[in-house]
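Narrative progress, year one. The postdoctoral researcher (J.K.) led the effort to move from monomer predictions toward full complexes, under supervision of the PI. The following entry was the first complex the group processed end to end, covering 643 residues in total.
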Amino acid sequence: MIRLHWRRVLPVALAGALLLAPALVPADDWRDDLSLKGLADSVVDGASLRNQPVLLQFWESWCRSCGKVMSDLDEVAARFPSVRYLALSTDDEAADARRRLESHPVFAEHPDRFFHDSGKRLATRFDVAAVPTVLVLDADGRELLRHVGHFNSSELNHLVNLLNELDSPHGESTP
Amino acid sequence: MRMILVAALAAGASAVPASAADYYGDIRPVIERKCVMCHQDSSVSFSFEDPEQTYNFRQAITAAVVARRMPPWLAAPGHQEYREDISLTEAELRAFGEWAEGGFEKGEARDREPAQPVFAPFSADLVVDIMPDQSYLPNAERVDDYRCFVVDWPVAEDAYITGFRAVPGNLRVTHHLVLFAAQAKVAERYKELDADEAGLGYQCFGGPVPDRFDNDREREAYEKQHPDGIKQLDSNSFWVAQWAPGTDGYVFPQDTGIPMHPGMALIVQMHYYSGYAAGERDAGTQMEFMLTEAVDKPAFILPLSRNEWLYGQRNDSMVIPAGERRTYSSWLDLEQLGKLAAAMTGTSVDGVDAMEVHSANLHMHSYGSSGVISLSDRNGLEEILLSVPRWDLNWQRNFTFTSPKIFGRDEFAETQLRVQCTFENPKLEPVYGGFGSDEEMCFNFSYIALVLDEGNRENPSVSGAGSR
């Protein structure tokens, strides 16, 4: 049963494209008043995500390519420990997400990475209209990259290069 | 909405104001023709069978369509016309853009027959079960389970395959199927390899050769027992047909067929979405064949690659360094391809009056980024047969031209078929050419039919003794 009820068609119309967003620091920070409940036992709040780049993956339990993206990003995330990787289920019911994760090997290793975006709050905040959608946000909360769909090698390489810049102590986020 | 319009313009659409495009009038017929054959209740993805429920996905559908992610069609437009092309035309794409611009008008449901998918009618002469009276539970510890099953070719006389359809045993877990045929001389060896591996079938990512030969010890042990044995397995098996979600039965080009002989074996490579569909069992996939006793033009799916690439780590012939991009290409003239094909018909290339190139099919693994297959003539002029600007392992398929490229004997030596593959390696370690899932390949498979001269046509001694 599909439970996607997205409200608007938004910039993800360029699904699959890798986009660099304007270099404006958002007036409202996505981390303000944020509290995410983990699909295991963890909880994360917005304050703990400040001053670090974040890799956000939106997914749903029915979505097969979302699982493939989790595996791809698992390998990438291991190389960039300073980048926080959060996999956010936008399922209506967290129980559906948990059931789906039972068979996913990445969940077994990193249960504290998986959260439920209750009420699709962040999905709405970031205008996510389809899953899987992956965002890279810099330490100031600016969206540096948006990718919809699964990755091919070239797109994954692009992501790695961007995270490498963010991870490097001398690197600068691409405006 | 602005971004949708930008995407439509980038795809070549003209800047038109929002019009009265609506779901039932303009969009639903496109979905019925080009989407519903995959998006079914019984299939791997969510269903578009119910028109009202489909409308709920309007935004996600439009996003995927405008980006040309869906329907999945790797070929860049503008080079060739292909049969059973499920990609959206510019007019169809424009309709989606206008529909979104106009606020996703629903319109009125209309009393009409559903639009028919783009596939040709198919009528089977032979049905083969790939696991008679058994079932297979894909290995859920792997994200993707590539499993090969070996089946005897059951026809007691020489025959030609002229059409193919697969009926997967469980669409919820089946990603694709590739059918290979093994010549009689290696059929028993494949059956032994199948029997030696625990469970039904054996692991096989890169083709019919088992994955376990990635392991040096396994490979050396086998080659000690069968000198040059892996090369023999590889060179005496060939791609026959394929199935992926969204493809129905398909008929090979008119007056052509792939010759098969008693004693051959079928090797069916199944790709299961095992990691994403735990517990889903293949209850028995079937294959259906159209057959005939004789054809005017015997045909083969001929591979174009370089053998040394399959041993890239040993000979450095194919290496993609960590974090880098590399392009590899290979080519053969039609004289060389004709010799391979003619040998498979028991004739020589001198007995071939003309060759017809009917298709192109790029094959790489997960490090593939883009690729081009082309023909060049004696003047060096190049014709693109297939350009894949964004490679996607999940959606590889055979691209058959609406009209074949026909070459007379005097053109064979100066006409080259070329494949070019570009790879990118996002990992920390180099990637090498090879058979394994974490190694790379660069292949083109073209369906090539031979127009034999009169003497050979009367006596088509189809020996099956070819090698590549």
